[in-house]
């Protein structure tokens, strides 16, 4: 009798395990982790509607990626918009189970997954590379950096930058700059995921170099810049307001009385004209550099020229969209 009871309990456990692993069980036990969801760019209303129409027409063709938890739940890793649509219309969907050691490893996977998608802007790539570098540094930093391990940490961080640079085919300098860029973006947007991804997807204009250069600003200034931008103000205007920079009236110099009435001074005294001329000279200089390095990239496959070209284009964008 005891043997039969033991066999019966074994069959029950086996059945429970099979049920747990079934697609239906997984679908019913999917949960959303808000921290991980921040790695997923939100869709605009029209984009969401287009995706919804496609799924209603053709079904949810791609599997949702989920991470199995010890308590029996499954954290959604990729497919948040599809999941929302399928839940709304009671549609079936496929799932793919993946396993991670911890949440940090899940974040790494999500960052690389986003980087591998089509139509990712250069700004979004820079942000994601910066996040990846921060993640890697956090891991090698362990419990924290102190006077006894700071030299070793610096060496490990340098090797990490080298590895990521090779992985993403950029320079080490770019990886370190990307980290600053990501930190400023996160501080400016401060939980406003819509603003963050609108900036990264070029729906809100800003200068990438100028934004990265804000890395030394106090956090309250950066937060205020983000609030100003969320209200619809331009990037430069938002900075000026946050820093309380006042526009000073332009004082026109009077021509000396001793000069003839038809005298035209060679020196232009209007600072705006000077600024425009200086800006135009910089644009022309950048144009020449871009052409030269583009030729080097095409003809010689010069990687350093390609890296310089990226930096020149960022600088050019800053000049063109300077508000």
Written account of the structure:
InterPro entries: ParB/Sulfiredoxin_sf. It comes from Thermoflexibacter ruber. This is ParB-like nuclease domain-containing protein. The chain has 323 residues and is α/β, with parallel strands linked by helices. It has three domains: 16-118, Conserved hypothetical protein from pyrococcus furiosus pfu- 392566-001, ParB domain (Alpha-Beta Complex); 119-247, no CATH class; 271-320. The chain is built from 15 helices and four strands. It has helices spanning 2-21, 23-28, 34-37, 45-58, 80-89, 103-115, 122-141, 150-168, 172-189, 193-200, 208-212, 219-230, 235-243, 271-300, 303-320, and strands at 30-31, 60-68, 74-78, 93-98. The chain has a four-stranded mixed sheet with strand order 1-3-2-4. α8 (150-168) packs across α9 and α12 (219-230) crosses α13 (235-243). The protein is globular, with a radius of gyration of 27 Å. It starts with a helix and ends with a helix. Residues 266-274 have low confidence and may be disordered.
């Amino acid at each position: 009798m005891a043997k039969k009871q033991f066999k019966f309990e074994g069959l029950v456990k086996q059945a429970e395990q099979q049920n747990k692993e079934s697609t239906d069980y997984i679908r019913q036990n999917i949960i959303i982790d808000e921290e991980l969801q921040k790695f997923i760019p939100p869709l605009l209303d029209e984009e969401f509607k287009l995706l919804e129409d496609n799924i209603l027409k053709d079904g949810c063709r791609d599997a949702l990626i989920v991470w199995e938890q010890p308590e029996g739940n499954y954290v959604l890793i990729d497919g948040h918009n599809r999941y929302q649509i399928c839940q709304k219309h009671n549609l079936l969907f496929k799932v793919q189970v993946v396993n991670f050691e911890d949440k940090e490893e899940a974040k790494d996977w999500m960052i690389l997954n986003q980087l591998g998608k089509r139509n990712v802007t250069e700004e979004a790539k820079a942000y994601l590379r910066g996040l990846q570098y921060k993640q890697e540094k956090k891991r090698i930093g362990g419990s924290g950096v102190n006077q006894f391990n700071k030299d070793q940490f610096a060496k490990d961080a340098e090797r990490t930058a080298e590895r990521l640079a090779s992985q993403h085919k950029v320079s080490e300098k770019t990886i370190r700059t990307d980290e600053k860029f990501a930190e400023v973006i996160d501080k400016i947007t401060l939980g406003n995921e819509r603003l963050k991804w609108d900036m990264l997807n070029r729906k809100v204009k800003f200068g990438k170099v100028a934004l990265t250069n804000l890395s030394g600003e106090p956090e309250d200034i950066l937060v205020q810049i983000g609030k100003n931008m969320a209200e619809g103000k331009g990037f430069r205007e938002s900075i000026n307001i946050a820093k309380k920079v006042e526009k000073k009236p332009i004082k026109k110099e009077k021509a000396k009385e001793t000069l003839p009435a038809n005298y035209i001074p060679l020196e232009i005294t209007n600072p705006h004209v000077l600024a425009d001329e200086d800006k135009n000279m910089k644009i022309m200089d950048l144009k020449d550099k871009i052409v030269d390095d583009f030729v080097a990239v095409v003809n010689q496959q010069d990687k350093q020229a390609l890296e310089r070209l990226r930096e020149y284009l960022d600088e050019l964008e800053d000049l063109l969209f300077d508000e």
